[in-house]
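Journal club prep, notes for RB
We'll compare a predicted complex against what the paper describes. Inputs for the NDP case:
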Amino acid sequence: MTDARGRVAIVTGGGRGIGRAIVERLHRDGATVVTCGRGERPADLPRDIVWITGDVSRPQDARHIVAGAARHGDVAVLVNNAGIQIEKTVAETTDDDWDRLIGANCRGVFNMCREVLPLMAERGGDIVNLGSISAMVADPSMAIYNASKGFVHSLTRSIAVDHGPNVRCNAVSPGWIMTEMAENGFALARDPQKAQDDSLARHPARRFGKPEDIANAVAWLISAESAFVTGQCITIDGGLTAASPLQPGLF
Ligand code: NDP
């Protein structure tokens, strides 16, 4: 059990994937969970989870989401999970790609943090951002996605420094977590199955991640058990980035 019980928690992009696993975990742990996405409420979202349609890249939508959450009590937790991926090099990236990706992955995180920080200033709160191992090692043909996660890691540290001690801010940096986004990443390869097999062999954990692996870390990061942890980017990748480029199976 975490410290989620009785707290109002906003999880952006909770309709599917990692966000959905975080929503379900915090809900199970007793939080009042508010989530959002750009479309309509997903039909399979449990009824007592609050859904607000909104695009976090738009400041007015971020304001609307946070105001909607505040109607349920003091907003004590923000998980910035919403994000998109565009599989292009810098040379291929259009102005529209830039606006969409930087809008969601950078401006969206900024917009949401800017809205909740004044609410958390006195009563305190926990912010967890979804970074990525892509901020540390460059996935091919993901140029501005990789860079956007570097922004998230850096903003995480700044918020921790500027808004402690009442607010803690950390990031989780997932490796390959099997969701729609990860499948689109592998689909880029000339031979997607070979790319997956090769990637798997480089994971000391010998499996890809599950959304629940990330939800577990988020639950810990908003709990009292992590009270002395702030400004950190915690890698959850089954050991992928700990390994050298030599494929263990060949030795
Ligand atoms: P998915 O594509 O499966 O889900 C992304 C979610 O974000 C969707 O619910 C989507 O809803 C929502 N979303 C996207 N843009 C916006 C927006 N502008 N406003 C509001 N909601 C938005 O991705 P994952 O679950 O795989 O990824 C979740 C997070 O984890 C992302 O930040 C991603 O970068 C990060 N991550 C994922 C990894 C992986 O291997 N899967 C690895 C490392 C990091 P809708 O489209 O309906 O708006």
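Talking point for the session: DSSP finds seven helices and seven strands in the chain.
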